[in-house]
Amino acid sequence: MYIDGFGEAVQREIADRMDDATKYNGRIFELTIDENQKFGNHGDIVKYIDEEVKTLKDMKEVVKALILGLNKEA
Fold first, then answer.
1. In whole angstroms, what is the distance from residue 9 CA to residue 28 CA?
2. Cα-flanking dihedrals φ and ψ of residue 43, to 5°?
């Protein structure tokens, strides 16, 4: 039995989660807070990797941020 629109809704939800988790990630936003505790300058994982990741520990934080960003309540 096929439910009209169900497949499209699932695809849309996956795309939204991927977009939110990679471009608007709250944990990455927190990691980009400057030394004066001002707001972070972005939540983009790819940009953060390019600019800030220098150690394995930094990369672990990125992976955790991605997993947490994808694993939100439906």
1. 27
2. -125, 20
